[in-house]
Design a protein that fits this description.
alpha+beta
């Protein structure tokens, strides 16, 4: 037989659980409302200030890019369309032989706004390199942007695939 004290505790626990259900449902609803936009760019380097004499820890360089996105034209099919420009500013934080680890900040400028990225990337020129990047902010259409993505660098080409959450 259940004592009145045990029954009181059970009723209180059940009431508290039922009271939390609307809050839990609302939290799940908010999580589903996050908008994720997949953005993909091809950057082509037009100016790079990579140190000519080799990189030492603390060296900095800048890379200016022309940005392109895939576009489908009814007559010509799939092609690349110029959508803006970008700039990467990097600082070498570790150098071991030909391998350079750098902290980079990247700004991508398009007609509808900018995206700012931050990443730690390990170069070993001329090898292709792929790394993760974080979206740290934006302006215009991307004013409340955050998220992540990947960056692949191969020679003068930089391929960015970003998951922009707003």
């Amino acid at each position: 037989m259940i004592t009145s004290a045990v029954r009181g505790v059970a009723v209180t626990a059940l009431a508290a659980t039922l009271a939390l259900f609307p809050t839990l449902a609302h939290a799940a609803e908010e999580k589903d409302e996050i908008d994720t936009e997949r953005v993909e760019f091809l950057g082509i380097s037009r100016l790079d200030t990579w140190p000519a004499q080799g990189v030492s820890t603390g060296d900095a360089w800048t890379n200016h890019l022309d940005l392109y996105a895939k576009h489908t034209d009814a007559e010509k099919g799939r092609q690349l369309r110029h959508v803006g420009d970008g700039q990467s500013d990097c600082v070498a934080v570790k150098v071991r032989g030909h391998e350079v680890t750098a902290q980079c900040t990247r700004v991508l400028r398009m007609a509808n706004g900018t995206l700012t990225l931050s990443d730690m990337i390990r170069y070993s020129p001329p090898e292709r390199v792929t790394s993760k990047t974080a979206i740290t902010g934006g302006t215009g259409h991307y004013r409340s942007a955050y998220g992540d993505g990947s960056i692949t660098i191969e020679g003068r080409h930089i391929h960015l695939v970003l998951n922009v959450d707003e």
